[in-house]
Amino acid sequence: MVGVFAGLLLAAPAVHATTAPPPASESTAPESSTEATAQDSEDSGGDETSNGAEYQDRISGVLRNAGAPVAGVTIKASGNGYEAETETAENGSWSIGVPEQGAYEVELDESTLPEGVALAEGQQNPRTVTFAGTSNITTLFLLGEGIVLQGDTFGTKLIERAVAGLSFGLLLALSAVGLSLIFGTTGLTNFAHGEMVTFGAVLAFGFSALGLPLWLALVLAVVGGAGLGYVQDAGLWRPLRRRGTGLVPMMIVSIGLALALRYTILFFFGGATQQLPDSQSPMLELGPVSISRNNLVSLVVSLVVILIVAALLLRTRIGKATRAVADNPPLAAASGIDVDRVIRIVWMAGGALAALGGILWAYYRPGVSFNMGQQILLLIFASVTLGGLGTVFGALIGSIIVGLFVEISTLWLEADLKYVGALLIMILVLLVRPQGILGRRERIG
Description:
The chain is an alpha+beta fold. Helix content is 55%, strand content 11%. The protein has 13 helices and eleven strands. The strands form four sheets. Strands 5-4-7-8 form a four-stranded antiparallel beta sheet. The longest helix is centred in the middle third of the chain and has 33 residues, at 154-186. The radius of gyration is 25 Å and the shape is elongated.
């Protein structure tokens, strides 16, 4: 099984990297890029102008005047020793690919604007744009009085951020519930859980790169996450438990395992951010709320899966056995429950939930990278600790609180500080209630 997973990690980027860019006549680049190349060829006697169609990282936007698209306007981007340009398409859209993330200067050629159309007052041209953890950055040039910005009220913004926070919180809950299940049944604080999140997203990319349908690639990635949980417990944690290894040494082993998995994924997958199919989704207007289709799907999927997990824990024999083991393993064993079997199932369930969380996290960011699990691990721990260590429903509540706070805090804080605020709120709550929201005092100490 380990060999199969390693083969997928090796094959996925190879399939992606060895696919030659299509010729200019068959390019899958945006319409604006094709038109720009054709126009530049006419103007320069056949010399094509680079528009970066072969690159994954992109700078894009839409140009409109009085509500109507503006076509044929030249947009240029330069930086990091690279230059490219394109023209806006018939629908006003434009897109320029860049070879690497960083800061780029984007300029609209005002001489190519239609007669009587000019940039709106105060528009910065050229302007500098910087990639920040995403492969697609958008910048808009406002023309005259053509684009009227609707001044959203504070209430509307609050509702939108709350919906985004709920989506992020439920996504976070998938991984947090798995971590909480593992802690509740074994007492292990698993620092390798972030790499289990990464593993699911990487497998999804690998299977899709092999040409499988998206739905099948995602299902196999979740199954692969469960397989990783099985391999971990069978090959590492169960032997350590049988040897009577203490929880602190096991926690240190999990840190080493996290580093080993992270840099193994880096070796085979590479350091670039890759995109899952359909990572760019349209915005949907639901009354006063705007939400991307991917975020809406993520919200629904996360909610359904969490409800299923809750039903399994409350209504099924294995769920009751899991809660019994989490409450008192020796007593559960004395009652005839196979503790090792329950723990093995919990590891598989935790791996599957982490893999699904990684897939949804890749669509939320968007993108798949070797350290994406590391980026979200502290938030997962914050959610579990805030809700109460070892309590599944506490992990759910903690995740929703963290998700809401992260997104709503952007109304006042810089986006780069939103995760700091989530960790701060966790510290403040624990100062008042050390055992967490649903934790029990006897679990402390």
